[in-house]
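Usage example:
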Amino acid sequence: MAATRTFRVLPGFNLTLGYTLGYLSLLILIPLSAVFLKTFEMDWARFVEVVTAPQVVATYKLSFGASLLAAAINAVFGLMLAWALVRYSFPGKKIVDALVDLPFALPTAVAGIALTALYAKNGWLGQYLEEIGIKVAFTPLGVLVALVFIGLPFVVRTVQPILEDLDTELEEAAASLGAQRWQTFRHVIFPILLPALLTGFALAFARAVGEYGSVIFIAGNLPFVSEITPLMIITKLEQYDYQGATAIASVMLIFSFILLLIINGLQAWTAKRTGRDR
Amino acid sequence: MAGATTMHLGGNHAARFENKAATSETPLVKWTILAIALTFFTVFLLMPLIAVFVEAFRKGWETYVTALVDPDALSAIKLTLLAAAVSVPLNLVFGVAAAWAIAKFEFRGKQFLITLIDLPFSVSPVIAGLVFVLIFGAQGWFGSWLIDNDIKIIFAVPGIVLATVFVTFPFIARELIPLMQAQGKEEEEAAVVLGAKGWQVFWYVTLPNIKWGLMYGVILTNARAMGEFGAVSVVSGHIRGQTNTLPLHVEILYNEYMFSAAFAVASLLALLALVTLVIKNWVEHQAARSYRDTQESAS
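Running the assembly step on the lines above writes:
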């Protein structure tokens, strides 16, 4: 790439790149570095003490566990929904397709109170679940429900375009060679979908770990039971424990960075596998 | 990371698969998948949406209207509009500049720059609020200087605007970068060779090509800006009538057990979400049409 030093015909490279870097540094990079600089003010022993306090560790378990589970649920059902949207005709399909993006458009606080109303003891769904002994609102299960809601579009929207691009020839060839429908899916279609499915899973997971608004209403926020990590940061802030809040934030940030790199790798893999550039 | 939020030019594909035995499932399998998928959709997406409106009108129109014309609600609406009115243009200019630099030129570290632009997507909104507290809060980097000069950023409107700009930062850039990369730079280069100035090239050549993608990014940015909760909640201080946005107002009403009022305000935001989805679909439709037109005129 370095060998092709060509004369730039188009104007504005220095201006636009300079502006991009300046704006990015000022609004994102310098503010984010504040988290790490503040964390470095603590000594190591204190840092470890804060980020491994039992109550904080309980929030990691819930946040990461529920997020993984929610992303897995979305991977399974999101794939089915994407499959139905691409392959089948049914009445109201356009509306279903449009509403899949609802979690992107609906403010998280609204989603949070709506889900709480649905799953509370006297709610539309909560009253029946209560009868069979399942409590959702104000338990870790409620956290899971909220995280499934906000992660749903990620899987559908990453898998859907790949499904749409699939050639019918592949499946016809498999069928003419004697493959059962399930074998065709398992050995022909699924390997093509896998990178996109994993990307959607990772995106839903990343979003779920940091999610706050939709969770806090339905979670009940009991220490050691239904408290998520972002709420722990808020709680520390409200107690004016800035160092504690920042220490936990830096743990979450490092995790997000690693996840971001994994997602970039997955997207590159998707592009390579399917020839799409996004 | 924005893969799932970029424009998706669908179209009907079902006919292609449904008419052939080799590419369709047995009716039993098909109806099972469809039933599971639609049940999942109904329970997790449709019912929460309907619940907002049902709860909002539970105590009748009068309560509904009272909740919306309440002075605190009105001031929350104003602040929400202000936050969106600042963050959309700021991130629009940035998005266009970043996409121009990245799509039209080659330079080292480009992929890394794209990753950095994606950062705010993977940062928890709570942390997005926290960073500005660390910088501008009373104990922050500029805390004492701001107090001496009587400037309030945290627990005031500027903090809310900053947090909103942070969380909506990547949307437009991430929409435009792949779009402009796919379009290449031949058209712009031709315009320059024919004597067009920089701005003319952008205005008459680039902009018409990217207008739908741009609009798509603006809609998403606006929806997120008006609906942001976590980041804004950290920097707001929840001062009624002053630093409350609509989502924060919903939270306050809800925590005070004024459920109908909370859902009334929430229904306003849900309506905004629905309008966003309608415009988004319309933009995708337009973009697909103009894409088809260019394909046809090219062949």
